[in-house]
């Protein structure tokens, strides 16, 4: 099915309005946005419905949108059976980002969700092993947030240091 | 808890640390191994040692300026990361790529695939205790590095692709060198098969070890050779065609091939050997059909992609190499995310490891071909 047909199909099956978006100049991929409380239901349907049969979670990630006060979570789906692709999104509040985990639908989500938790700070309820994956466990902040500032030091080791040239005295007196 | 068994031996779980600096962990990577004697209860990969923030870095680079950074995602398959990124930007810009540039991209990528499989196959044998094949294959890889150096001036981090095409054209001398390399290399694959692939000791270390079913492979998002070894007939080059690939004939090796069963370590090894042969086939067809013409489409000096997003994927040497790109209409990417084969392959290890011998963990990691920098980015 074409992405627009998949969106219409999901809308009909879930009996809820699903937002539909396209790029500014209709280039790239179109995407659908569902409400966060529909996230698991929509994914469950996408995985198990025989018409959709999205058996491969290609990619799961997030984007910080501070202007809207939201964090987007985006899933790129592919079906080996039906040979079609779809981009499904949801948005969570930036202040207290919480979402249900997809780990029971696609085991591949376990690590992707750990990464989103680590780098964007979204908490996934029902996740079997929610801890940081890239950064150390006691790291402060979520680097992929747009307003992220790196901590000055980590366990007493400075995270930045002046370069050799700037550390030189400006002028040496004769 | 230790409890005596019938034979009087003590049963006890021991937690062992493997890595992060270990000769067979392929980059800086650590496993927390829970064992009972030689049998593992599970092995948990701990990654992130090579997290360089390449996705965050993209947000402060221009579209063209990010290209050299993509090489650093995986030092063994720089051409694929470049192509995934270029394709993602080109999808947003709706750029048409000249046919000659598409062919040159295929040549670069397939050479890169062969060079990568040299390292992979060499490392598998080295991890299992045979050092010589690794050196044999490194020798062959040197010639590819020389070819690529003549092509773009770099041996590892190529920076050869540009948004809209490629950086440099090739001449007949280079094409002749490529042809003589293929003449030289194709018999070497047979030699490699005769010397190593059928080696009984090597087969015993891999056959029926760490079997990943097709179902598990799909569910955990394995891609590329690992997925094909498990019996899923799938190749992005053939099934979601991109670039010049629809113009070539090639076979997609799918497990089970030869001895063993689909999804075991030996199948993952065999699939890669066969892939080198298919890459040579594609390269031969490139040489025969290479069209004349431009090597780069017209794109503005300062690229500003229209608002929107795209996801482009190519068949990398370790599976689907995907680049998710979000643009807010500015001159820097708003968000870049890399979907890499090693990340998914690493995540299945905890699931596959229970019941394996510790030594087989090495075989599993080597044949899944996980590369820590590609996983951590």
Describe this structure in words.
The complex is a heterodimer of chains A (174) and B (377). By secondary structure, chain A is an alpha/beta fold. In chain A, strand 6, helix 3 and strand 7 (123-125) form a beta-alpha-beta unit. Chain A starts with a helix and ends in a 7-residue tail after the last helix. In chain A, the strands form three sheets. A five-stranded mixed sheet of chain A has the order 1-2-5-4-3. A two-stranded parallel ribbon of chain A has the order 6-7. Chain A has four helices and nine strands; from the N terminus they run H-E-E-H-E-E-E-E-H-E-E-E-H. Chain A has one domain (3-167): NADH:ubiquinone oxidoreductase Nqo5 subunit (Beta Polymerase, domain 2, 2-Layer Sandwich), CATH 3.30.460. Chain B has 377 residues and is of the alpha+beta class. Chain B has a single domain, classed as Orthogonal Bundle (Cytochrome-c3 Hydrogenase, chain B). Chain B contains 15 helices and ten strands. Chain B has helices spanning 54-58, 67-71, 78-93, 99-127, 132-152, 172-197, 200-206, 214-219, 224-229, 236-239, 265-289, 341-347, 349-352, 358-368, 372-376; strands at residues 3-4, 10-11, 14-18, 30-36, 39-46, 161-162, 165-166, 308-316, 319-327, 335-339. In chain B, the strands form four sheets. In chain B, strands 3-4-5 form a three-stranded antiparallel sheet. Chain B has a three-stranded antiparallel sheet with strand order 8-9-10. Chain B has a two-stranded antiparallel sheet with strand order 1-2. In chain B, helix 4 packs antiparallel against helix 14 (358-368), helix 6 packs antiparallel against helix 11 and helix 11 (265-289) packs parallel to helix 14. The longest helix of chain B has 29 residues, at 99-127. Chain B starts with a strand and ends with a helix. The model of chain B has no long low-confidence stretch (mean pLDDT 87). The A-B interface holds A 22-25, 27-29, 31, 55-59, 61, 63-64, 74, 76, 80, 83, 87, 106-108, 110-111, 119, 132-136, 143-144 and B 47-48, 51, 53, 55-56, 91-94, 218-221, 232, 234, 239, 306-311, 313, 320, 322, 324-326, 329, 334-335, 337, 339, 343-344, 346-347, 351, 376.
């Amino acid at each position: 099915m074409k992405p627009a047909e998949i969106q219409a199909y999901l809308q009909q099956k879930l009996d809820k309005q699903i937002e539909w978006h396209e790029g500014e100049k209709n280039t790239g991929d179109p995407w659908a946005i569902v409400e966060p409380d529909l996230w698991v239901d929509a994914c469950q349907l996408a995985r198990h419905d025989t018409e959709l049969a999205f058996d491969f979670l290609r990619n799961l990630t997030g984007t910080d949108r501070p202007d809207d006060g939201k964090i987007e979570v985006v899933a790129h789906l592919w079906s080996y059976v039906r040979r079609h692709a779809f981009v499904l999104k949801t948005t969570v509040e930036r202040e207290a980002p919480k979402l249900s985990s997809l780990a029971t639908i696609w085991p591949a989500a376990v690590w992707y969700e750990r990464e989103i938790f680590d780098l964007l700070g979204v908490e996934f309820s029902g996740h079997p092993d929610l801890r940081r994956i890239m950064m150390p466990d006691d790291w402060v902040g979520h680097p992929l947030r747009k307003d992220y500032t790196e901590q000055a030091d980590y366990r007493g080791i400075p995270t930045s240091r002046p370069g050799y040239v700037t550390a030189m005295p400006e002028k040496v007196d004769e | 808890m230790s409890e005596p068994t019938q034979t009087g031996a003590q049963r006890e779980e021991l937690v062992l640390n493997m890595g992060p600096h270990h000769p067979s962990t392929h980059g800086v990577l650590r496993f927390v191994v829970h064992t009972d004697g030689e049998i593992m209860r599970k092995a948990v990969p701990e990654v992130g040692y090579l997290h360089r923030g390449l996705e965050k870095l993209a947000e402060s680079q221009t579209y063209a300026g990010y290209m050299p950074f993509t090489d650093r995602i995986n030092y063994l398959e720089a051409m694929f990361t470049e192509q995934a990124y270029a394709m993602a930007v080109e999808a947003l810009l709706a750029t048409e790529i000249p046919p000659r540039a598409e062919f040159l991209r295929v040549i670069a990528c397939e050479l890169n695939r062969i060079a990568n499989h040299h390292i992979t196959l060499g490392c598998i044998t080295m991890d299992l205790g045979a050092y010589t094949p690794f050196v044999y294959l490194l020798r062959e890889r040197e010639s590819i590095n020389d070819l690529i150096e003549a092509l773009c001036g770099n041996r590892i981090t190529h920076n050869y692709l540009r948004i809209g095409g490629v950086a440099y054209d090739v001449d007949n001398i280079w094409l002749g060198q490529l042809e003589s390399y293929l003449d030289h290399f194709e018999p070497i694959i047979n030699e490699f098969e005769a010397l190593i692939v059928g080696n009984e000791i090597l087969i015993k270390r891999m056959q029926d070890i760490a079997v990943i079913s097709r179902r598990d492979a799909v569910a955990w998002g394995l891609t590329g050779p690992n997925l094909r070894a498990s019996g899923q007939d799938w190749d992005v080059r053939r099934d979601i065609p991109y670039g010049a690939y629809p113009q070539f004939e090639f076979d997609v090796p799918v497990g089970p091939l030869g001895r063993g069963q689909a999804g075991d370590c030996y199948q993952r090894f065999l699939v890669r050997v066969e892939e080198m042969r298919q890459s040579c086939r594609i390269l031969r067809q490139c040489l025969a059909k290479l069209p004349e013409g431009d090597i780069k489409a017209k794109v503005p000096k300062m690229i500003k992609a229209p608002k929107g997003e795209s996801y482009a994927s190519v068949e990398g040497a370790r599976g689907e190499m995907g680049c998710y790109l979000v643009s807010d209409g500015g001159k820097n990417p708003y968000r870049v995310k890399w979907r890499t084969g090693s990340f998914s392959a690493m995540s299945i290890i905890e699931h596959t490891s229970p019941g394996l011998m510790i030594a087989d963990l090495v075989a599993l990691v080597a044949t899944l071909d996980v590369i820590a920098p590609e996983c951590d980015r």
